[in-house]
């Protein structure tokens, strides 16, 4: 479903990704690990189509379609979802309103019918309950004054409702206590299906204990330097990036 | 180009959707301004002597007055002789029923989405009904639900009619809040005012429906001089809304209004404005010059006046709806959204004058600037020495879209009472690229994302609008910022 071919990306004129290639088949969970500044967030922003992340070479294929130059909202409507490392606050706009706007916009782009108010409410309430998100939180302005954990749960809620085909989770585990981590991981696991793939970016083995990946990639210096099964995370935990990368080189 | 494509292009390019002109045969006063023109207006309206005298005395004062220049507004000098001060669709004399109204005029209101047929309003799905006074250039076309309102003693009619039907009330209250000496534009208005609404709510009556006046400028080269007077007698309540639109033209047109509100003991007036005069095009050509004096006198104890305004139109906005808090325990509120896009300039705010004991006021101002626009909040909170227990809360938030626009906050505070409690908060923010991308990544396109974020920014004020108009206002907020990003 997702195939990244020899991707080179400049940010502010500086080359950050230097020939990244990656293939994620449907239904699989792939993890990307790598040192700070390796280009993990850059990869996720580029996949989501953020302005300023200039692809100078290579391409991104999604279900056989070259989406490299597509606008972000078009990619979202095709099923690419990014859970942000640092979710943004939008004062005055409730989570409820934001979700409704997002779902309706995507439906419009896809040429589908919008949900009616009752269907929408039912869907939101059910998803919120699973993630232990209160009615009150749904009415509060999006992410404003939310704790780190609440923000991440809110990202998971959005994902559950937008039902993407590819979910990119950028450091979903940062700032979460152990209970919240479990909750979010459970939320993700419930969404696992043969039609849905995940790209899980993390620094820690711990998250991968809960969301067990099919493949782990190590990103360093703007490209994938090593791929392997989940035992790779253990090696990293024990020996650190430098040693593992050096051995791979 | 196919017809469909052409229509689509027109739709997308024509951002101001009320910019059409109605083909109506009108009669005008001779161009320019002098005593004869004032007599002409007064004769047209068949006014009594005292009204003409009022106008003439204002005019004689006005010729010696200077235009105010203290606002942060830049525009070429206005030639007051190069305009028509009276324009009216040709029609039969006397009060109108809907049957007498020119069908082209009715079509105009249909196009504007203003309901003039009582039966249709009654049959409508909406539970709450709205009575409308439709003012077209210098005259009122029709006022709906007058009879039904009269049953509970509410007077709702064009002011030119009130001069005849309720001279004692007009004489008592006209100019009692905004005297004809008040300022350049108010004095001009006193001399040439043409139409507006008159509302009187008798003691103890809660007005059974929303009242509204819809102002439409149609004729070219004409000014509109609205005059509105609302009196809520002891214990009365009314919610009133005004809306305004004008055709898209290359020349600037003048709108100089005076609105006076009087609230007696325990009375409450809620006054909402959705101002959508033609703002000028993307290059700053055309648009309405909007110079408005709006003031409320909270004369009675425990009286309350709440101004809510959504200002999206006009090339120039000069407007400071104010409250004189005279009565003990009286309350003044000002909730404002002012949007300036492209080359629009807005200088708007409020004055809260605390005279009585335990008076309180609340100011929430949301200014949004985009394009090359300049947006200024200008406000005064004044506390009289005898106003023990007075308190004010002011919050001024500015939102900038892009980096070529400006936002300015000019709050004046004059407190002669050391015990007064005054709180002031101000913020300036931008729509960040991060916020926008966050929305885009959820499938929300740019224009909608801007509309969503701005509506969120304005939420506290939008919540104050009567339900019937809140949705419309939200859409307008989005529409008036189209093209401001990306
Ligand atoms: N807007 C920007 N301007 C300049 N450099 C940038 C910008 N964004 C990212 N970079 C640089 O690109 C490199 C990769 O950053 P990126 O955020 O992708 O790293 P990361 O792998 O996600 O790191 P972390 O683990 O700390 O989240 C870093 O050196 C960073 O400084
Ligand atoms: Mg990162």
TrEMBL record, chain A:
List residues of the ABC transporter domain.
Answer: 2-246
Q: Tell me the keywords, alphabetical order.
A: ATP-binding, Nucleotide-binding
Q: Which domain of life is it from?
A: Bacteria
Q: PROSITE patterns from the entry?
A: ABC_TRANSPORTER_2
GO MF annotation, one: ATP hydrolysis activity
In the record, the note on similarity to other proteins reads: Belongs to the ABC transporter superfamily. Ycf16 family.
> Which PANTHER family does the annotation name?
ABC TRANSPORTER I FAMILY MEMBER 6, CHLOROPLASTIC
Q: What is this protein called?
A: Fe-S cluster assembly ATP-binding protein
TrEMBL record, chain B:
Name used for this protein in its record: Iron-regulated ABC transporter membrane component SufB
Boundaries of every SUF system FeS cluster assembly SufBD core domain copy: 215-457
**Pfam families xref list:** SUFBD_core, SufBD_N
Protein source organism: Rhodoblastus acidophilus
The entry assigns this protein to a family as follows: Belongs to the iron-sulfur cluster assembly SufBD family.
Which SUPFAM superfamilies did the record assign? Answer: Stabilizer of iron transporter SufD
Q: Name one GO biological process term.
A: iron-sulfur cluster assembly
Q: Where is the SUF system FeS cluster assembly SufBD N-terminal domain?
A: 149-206
């Amino acid at each position: 479903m997702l195939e990244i071919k020899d991707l080179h990306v400049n940010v502010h004129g500086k080359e950050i990704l230097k020939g990244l290639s990656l293939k994620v088949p449907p239904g699989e969970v792939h993890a990307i690990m790598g040192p700070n500044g390796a280009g993990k967030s850059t990869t996720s922003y580029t996949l989501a189509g953020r302005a300023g992340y200039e692809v100078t070479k290579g391409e991104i294929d999604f279900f056989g379609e070259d989406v490299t130059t597509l606008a972000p909202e078009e990619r979202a409507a095709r099923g690419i979802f990014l859970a942000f490392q640092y979710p943004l606050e939008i004062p005055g706009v409730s989570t409820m309103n934001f979700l409704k706007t997002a779902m309706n916009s995507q439906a419009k782009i896809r040429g589908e019918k919008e949900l009616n108010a009752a269907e929408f409410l039912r869907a939101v309430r059910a998803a919120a309950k699973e993630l232990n998100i209160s009615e009150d939180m749904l009415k509060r302005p999006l992410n404003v004054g939310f704790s780190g954990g609440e923000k991440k749960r809110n990202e998971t809620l959005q994902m559950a409702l937008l039902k993407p085909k590819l979910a990119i989770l950028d450091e979903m585990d940062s700032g979460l206590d152990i209970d919240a981590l479990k909750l979010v991981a459970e939320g993700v696991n419930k969404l696992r299906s043969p039609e849905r793939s995940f790209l899980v970016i993390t620094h820690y083995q711990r998250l991968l204990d809960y969301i067990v990946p099919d493949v782990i990639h190590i990103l360093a210096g703007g490209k994938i330097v090593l791929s392997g099964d989940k035992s790779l995370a253990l090696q990293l935990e024990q020996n650190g990036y430098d040693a593992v990368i050096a051995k791979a080189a | 180009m196919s017809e469909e494509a052409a229509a689509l292009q027109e739709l997308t390019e024509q951002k101001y959707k009320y910019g059409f002109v109605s083909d109506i045969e009108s009669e005008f006063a001779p161009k320019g301004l002098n005593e004869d023109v004032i007599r002409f207006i007064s004769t047209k309206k068949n006014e009594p002597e005292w009204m003409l005298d009022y106008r003439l005395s204002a005019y004689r004062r006005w010729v010696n007055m200077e235009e105010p220049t203290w606002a942060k507004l830049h525009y070429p000098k206005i030639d007051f002789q190069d305009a028509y001060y009276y324009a009216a669709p040709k029609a039969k004399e006397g009060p109108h029923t809907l049957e007498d109204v020119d069908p082209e005029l009715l079509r105009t209101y249909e196009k504007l989405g203003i309901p003039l047929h009582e039966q249709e309003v009654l049959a409508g799905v909406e539970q709450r009904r709205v009575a409308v006074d439709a003012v077209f250039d210098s005259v009122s076309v029709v006022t709906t639900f007058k009879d039904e309102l009269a049953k509970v003693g509410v007077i709702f009619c064009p002011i030119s009619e009130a001069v005849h039907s309720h001279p004692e009330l007009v004489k008592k209250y006209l100019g009692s809040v905004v005297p004809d000496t008040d300022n350049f534009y108010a004095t001009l208005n006193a001399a040439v005012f043409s139409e507006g609404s008159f509302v009187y709510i008798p003691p103890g009556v809660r007005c059974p429906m929303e009242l509204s006046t819809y102002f439409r400028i149609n004729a070219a080269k004409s000014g509109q001089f609205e005059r509105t007077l609302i009196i809520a007698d002891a214990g009365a309540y009314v919610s009133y809304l005004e809306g305004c639109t004008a055709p898209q033209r290359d020349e600037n047109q003048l709108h100089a209004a005076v609105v006076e509100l009087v609230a007696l003991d325990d009375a409450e007036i809620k006054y909402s404005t959705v101002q959508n005069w033609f703002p000028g095009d993307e290059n700053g050509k055309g648009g309405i010059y909007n110079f408005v004096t709006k003031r409320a006198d909270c004369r009675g104890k425990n009286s309350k006046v709440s101004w809510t305004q959504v200002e999206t139109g006009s090339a120039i906005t000069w407007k400071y709806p104010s409250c004189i808090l005279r009565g003990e325990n009286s309350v003044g509120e000002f909730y404002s959204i002012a949007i300036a896009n492209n080359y629009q300039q807005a200088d708007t705010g409020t004055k809260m004058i605390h005279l009585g004991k335990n008076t309180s006021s609340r100011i929430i101002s949301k200014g949004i600037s985009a394009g090359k626009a300049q947006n200024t909040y200008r406000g005064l909170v004044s506390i009289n020495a005898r106003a023990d227990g007075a308190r004010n809360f002011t919050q001024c938030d500015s939102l900038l879209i892009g980096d070529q626009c400006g936002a300015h906050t000019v709050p004046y505070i004059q407190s002669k009472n050391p015990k007064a409690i005054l709180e002031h908060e101000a913020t300036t923010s931008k729509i960040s690229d991060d916020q926008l991308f966050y929305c885009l990544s959820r499938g929300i396109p740019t224009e909608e994302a801007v509309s969503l974020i701005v509506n969120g920014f304005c939420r506290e004020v939008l919540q104050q609008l009567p339900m019937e108009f809140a949705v419309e206002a939200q859409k307008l907020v989005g529409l008036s910022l189209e093209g401001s990003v990306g």
